[in-house]
Specification:
The structure holds two protein chains of two kinds.
Chain A: E1 6-7, E2 12-18, E3 21-26, E4 31-36, E5 51-55
Antiparallel strand pairs in A: 1-4, 2-3, 4-5
Chain B: E1 11-14, H1 18-31, E2 34-39, H2 47-51, E3 54-57, H3 70-80, E4 84-86, H4 96-104, E5 108-109, H5 114-121, H6 123-132, H7 148-158, E6 162-166, E7 176-178, H8 181-199, E8 204-208, E9 214-222, E10 228-240, E11 243-249, H9 256-272, E12 277-285, E13 291-297, H10 304-311, H11 315-323, E14 340-347, E15 349-350, E16 356-357, E17 360-361, E18 363-366, E19 373-377, E20 384-385, E21 392-400, H12 403-416, E22 418-420, H13 426-434, H14 436-440, H15 447-457
Parallel strand pairs in B: 1-2, 1-4, 2-3, 4-5
Antiparallel strand pairs in B: 6-7, 6-8, 9-10, 9-12, 10-11, 11-14, 12-13, 14-21, 15-16, 17-20, 18-22, 19-21
The chains are: A mainly beta, B alpha+beta.
Chain lengths: ~55, ~450
Amino acid sequence: MEVGQKIRAGDVVCIVESMKVFTEIRAERAGTVVNILVADEDIVRKDQELIEVEMV
Amino acid sequence: MFGDKGSMLKKILIANRGEIALRIIRTCKEMGIGTMAVYSDADRHSLHVRYADEAVNIGPPQSRKSYLDITKIIETARTGGADAIHPGYGFLSENEKFARSCRENDIVFIGPSPETIALAGNKSEARKTLGRLGLPVIPGSADVISSPDEAVSIAETLGYPVIIKASGGGGGRGMRIVHNEEDLLLGLKVASGEARVAFGNPDLYIEKYLQNPRHIEIQILADHFDHYVHLGERECSIQKRHQKLIEESPSSFVDEGLRAEMCHTALQIARAINYTSAGTVEFLVDQQKRFYFMEVNSRIQVEHPVTEMVTGVDMIRQQIVAASGGKLEMTQDDIRQNGWSIECRINAEDPEDNFVPSPGVVRGLILPGGPGVRVDTHVYDSWEVSPFYDSLIAKVIVWGRNRETAVRRMQRALSEFRIDGMKVTTSFHEKVLRNADFIRGVFDTHFLDHFNKSTGDSK
């Protein structure tokens, strides 16, 4: 993912790994990525915001 | 102490964590062998660190930077003066490169040789080798598929449905069940793409798809004196997405004749690949009780305790004896299967929400006990089950003189199990243990598909 990238609803935007299980996180709606709040391999918590998207 | 030729290992580094690290340390202590634990930053307060004679930090929580770091682990063993490494299961246990690296550094790898690990790890190659020896592999293509036309003609000979599998693969990826020619041609394209992405190898092979098989495996032990024994079978058909959840020994599906045949075949396979140490030969058995080789697991397995309960053999001890260059401490005639054992794997997952992982801090832990109950676990109150490793928190194992007694004992043990701070799968196991088909011993690898539907209906 890159800032400025356009995504469609259903696109895989990142993968979260927990206990060896990989879960694909998909975009709920179409939009443009305006901010990426985490780096690759960062540890994240429940309900944490990962990517800011501006709706189209 | 251990046979004429061997000189017992003095200090073993345990390249693992969790319950299996404890399991190995316990046997080492009973044998008077020194133990060296390794741990990541996430496991600083782990019991395996406390129980071992020495413990060395090997890096950050991510497995890749700690428990999978071959260079660091070998270096730790050398510096600390360990003469052997026990890899447990998972992590580096079936890693040919790691076993080879141990050998090059004069460290005993407690497991089979790198050559045997490599052969067991390449599925289509193992299939080819054993097929050539006339051993029962699942009917299918002799080698990887070279063209769609070839695939179609093989599938017609086998009869549909067939399953497309990735040569470099495992874990269900690149696998496809197809019921006709049209699906087959489409399936080949998709599976090949998936296999290239997942394993860097697009090669595929085809097998006949067995309907409603049982997953039954044979435990073997071997030393360096061409001495092979089997410890009977384990029934592992209760699975979710190829993940075993309940195991037992013996299997209610296996009669004397079938057991003798399967154990004999497993030993032939072990000999064919020069197996040493503890290993498992996995088979699929169809409803007509024809059995087919699936794969060899070249390590100690999670479910090994059910075999220990019915045979009284400490398998970790036999691994250490064999690795020390000693002879196995028993012959086939010494081994008797006595009674029945069942294991439930309790995972930190939410059974009400599609088994999603549920890490957290352990509170209010009460473990089952009493006659015939064994619990292998590394958790204790205030221990944090971290998201970095697998979700297994405890193995509840029971023994009974027959299956009925064992089932009742497991129901009783599960009702005693208490843990707060996270969701665990105990309630799911309790449901299975009350299911009429499970109690009758009538089930196959699709048991949970029907089970989930039927419990869904009753809500």
